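BUG: 3D viewer hangs when loading the predicted structure for this chain

Environment: internal workstation, default settings.
Expected: structure renders.
Actual: progress bar stalls at 90%.

Input used:
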Amino acid sequence: MKKLLPCISLIFLLVACDSAENVDLIVHNANIYTVDDEFAIANSLAVKDGKFIAVGEKEAINKRFTSENQIDADGKTIVPGLIDAHCHFYGLGMNQQVVDLVGTESFEEVLERVVEFQKKQPSNFILGRGWDQNDWEVKEFPTKNRLDELFPNIPVALRRVDGHAYLANQKALDLAGITSETSIDGGEIHKINGKPTGILVDNPMRMVDAVIPKPNRATQIRALKDAEKLCFQYGLTTVNDAGLQKSTIELIDSLQQTGDLSIRVYAMVSNTKQNLDYFLDKGIVKTDKLNVRSVKVYGDGALGSRGAALRAPYSDKDGHYGAMVTPVDQIEALAERIAASDYQMNTHAIGDSANIVVLRAYKKALEGKKDRRWKVEHAQVISEQDFDYFKNGIIPSIQPTHATSDMYWAEDRLGADRVKGAYAFKKLLNKAGMVALGTDFPVERVSPFLTFYAAVARQDLEKFPEDGFQMQDALSREETLKGMTIWAAYSNFEENEKGSIEAGKLADFIILSDDIMTVPVDDIPNLQAEQVFMNGKQVK
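C-alpha cells produced before the viewer hung:
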C-alpha cells in the first residue's frame, strides 16, 4: 500500500503563491482510491465548479491551487460516490409510508405489525411490504384467513420482500374482481379447494394494483426525499431505479431542477405501451442529475416465490417451472423495437429459462449494432452453456446480497447441480469483462457495504457459511469497488462523467470511516460513509 506523505500544516497550505488558482475545495492528507484505469492512489484533490480539477500529491496540488475551503482528511479513505446499479429508489421511499414487514420472523409478527400500524396511521387501504416466508419457522405461504378476521371491511395488500407476490385479504380480492374462476397468464393465483388463498404471484398482482388508491403528490415528494436521505446516509450518489412511470420521472426531474432533490437518478422506464410510445419517440433525456435512456422489462418472477422461469421443474415442487411474466414473443418484439431506438434494454431474468430467452433475443436484435450495453438484471441462474452470451457486450447487473439471502433455500429450489450456475458473479465477470453491482433495495437493505461484503466474503452477517457460499464466484475488493463505481457508470453510459476520481469528472466522493480495501473482511459491514459530497458540496 502506498504511504502518504507527512501532513503539512494548515498555515503553510494557506500561503499559496501569487499564481495559484483559487478553487472551491481542496482535500488533503487522504487515502484516495481514484478507481482510474491504473486504480491509482492519491492523497489530495481539488474541486472547482462542481468537478475535480486535479487529483494527485499534496505538494503538487498546493503549488497550483489555493482555497478558503480545505479539509484535512486525517488519513481517511476516500472513494468515488457509490452507484447502486439496480434498486427501486421511489419504491424505497414509498415503503417508508407503509407497514414495514422486513425482518418478520413469523406470520404472527406480520399481523402484529399491521395491527399496530393501523392504530397509529389509520388507512382505508392497508399496504405493507417486506415479509418472507423463508425466514419463518413454517416456510409456507400464509393465507388471508387471519387478515379477513382482523380487517373484514378494510382491504389489505401485503407485498412480499422481492415484490413478486401479494398476500391480499378478501376485501382486496373483491375490489380487484378476483374470484375462484379468475385465471391470468404469467403468474399464479394460489388456491385451496378451488378458492383463492390471498397469495397472488406476479401478473395477477396487477389486478390489486389497479384498485389501490394512487398516492397524492405530497406523499410522492415525501417518499422521494425520504429515499434520498437514506441513500446519502450510505454514500450513494447515483441510483439506477429499475422501473419508473413517466409521471414519477417527471416529478423527479422537477424536484432536481428546483434543488429539492439532489441525488442523481438513472431511470429505467417501465415497460408499458404509453411509456414506450412517449420515450422511444422523444429520445434520450439527459440532465446533470437525470438520465433516461433505458427500458426495464420483466422476463420472469422471483426464485423465492417460485416465479422464476426454469428449464426443468423446481426441485422442491414437482411439475412447477415458474413462469415468464412477459411472453417470449413479446420479449423478442420488444428487443427489436428498442434496438431500433437509442435506448438500452434492461431485462429482469432470474431463472435459467428466462435468461436464455433474454440472451437470445438480445443477440438477434443487436446483430450488427455497436456499443449498446444492454443489461441482464439479476442474471441469477445461468445454464453452463449460456455464459458465453455475455462475451457479446451484454452486461450482467447483479446484486451480491441476493446470494447471501437466498443461499439457505436456493439449493432446495434448484438442486445440487443447477445451483452451481447460480449467483456466479466471478464467472459472469470473466465472460463480460465487468459487472454492475447493486442491492435491489428495498428487496435487500440499502447499505452498499453489505453489497461489498457479500461480493467478497459470500457470507451473511452471521458469518454463514463458515467457508463462504460457492467461493469460486467471489469477487476481489478491487473488482467489487469497480462494480459499484466505474463499471456501474459505464453500464449507464456515464463513465466519462463519474465513477472515478479524475480531473474533469463530477466531484462526487465519500470519506469512509475505515479503509475498505484493507479493513478485516468481517468489519466491512460496519463501515460508514462519514461525509458525502456531490459536485464538491457536502450532502451528509
